[in-house]
Amino acid sequence: MRLHALAPLALVLLLAGCGGSSSEPDGGTPASGCRAPSGVNAAPQSIDETVTLINALPKPLTLSCFLESLDRPLRISASESTFSAQPANGTRSPRVFLFSGPLVVSVVPEGPGLPLLELSELGPNARSVKAEIHFPVEGPLAPEAPFARVVQNGSGTSCGTCHGQEQPERTLNGTTVYSSRALQPAPQELVPVESVRGEAQKCDEAAEPERCVLLKAIFSHGAVEHQPFPADLPTIYD
Q1: Per DSSP, what are the bridge partners of residue 224?
Q2: Residue 112: which of 81, 76, 88 has the closest Cα?
Q3: Where along the chain do its domains lie?
Q4: Quick one: residue 223, left, alpha or beta (phi over 0 = left, psi -120 to 50 = alpha)?
């Protein structure tokens, strides 16, 4: 499944470019087209709020433009784990988790998970609701669309295989929303934020345009800080 990890406090989540890139990571502001309109929350703390933000941004909407639109500072962790539907490609292109309250979203700079925003929203008892959005987004997203993408054969989701203990939580416009265990990366798989920042700084846009655009969408539009996962969350190996 999607190896999402969640967190019960400042909660864990989670892609070519909308705005211009900056040569100085952590500097600059979002391009005007990649900024949330007045009254729209640019620090979404739920999957529903994420859909609202996406629907307020210009279309077609790239993943990098969505990332640029998010309020800074971004609070992130990174993992080199390949045991996921959104696998990392080593420490140079780790899976990056962005935390906002009970919401964690994740992205990867290259590979089959590049077009995907994985979402996980914490609920009671260290469980989380999972969803997925494929980019670019060409038009308005229905509220149930992120949940429908992970449902398999009308019963359960692709997330349940890895996260386990899956159960239905509610129905949204005919789509069943499921929850399962919230997980965190194993300690040996974590990648320091400064290492990822370094990859953004030295990325060769001529050689790897999509990878560089995504990394710079994270690091070139304001402050980025490390956010650890809650220590009491299990890993997939537990």
Answers
A1: 74
A2: 88
A3: 32-226
A4: beta
Whole-structure pTM over 0.90, yes or no?
A: no
Q: Pairing relation of β-strands 95-100 and 74-79?
A: antiparallel
Cβ atoms of 22 and 38 within 8 Å: the answer is no
Distance CA 149, CA 87 (A): 18
Q: In this predicted model, what pLDDT tens digit does every residue of 205-237 receive, in sequence order?
A: 999 999 999 999 999 999 999 999 988 888 878
More confident call, 30 vs 37: 37
Residue 230: the pLDDT is 82
How far apart CA 95 and CA 178 sit, in angstroms, is 23
pLDDT tens-digit profile of 31-71?
A: 458 999 999 999 999 999 999 999 999 999 999 999 999 99
Q: Residue 115 carries which side chain, given as an amino acid letter? A: P
The pLDDT score that the predictor gives to residue 162 is 62
DSSP string covering the chain? ----B--SSS-------SSPP-SSTT-S---GGGSPPTTS-SS--SHHHHHHHHHHS-SSBPHHHHHHHSPSSEEEEEE---SSSS--BTTTB-EEEEEETTEEEEE-SSSTTTTEEEEEEE-GGGEEEEEEEESSB-SPPPTTHHHHTTB-TTSSBTTHHHH---EEEEEETTEEEEEEE-B---GGGB--HHHHHHHHHH--TTT-HHHHHHHHHHHSSS-EEE-PPPTTSPPTT-
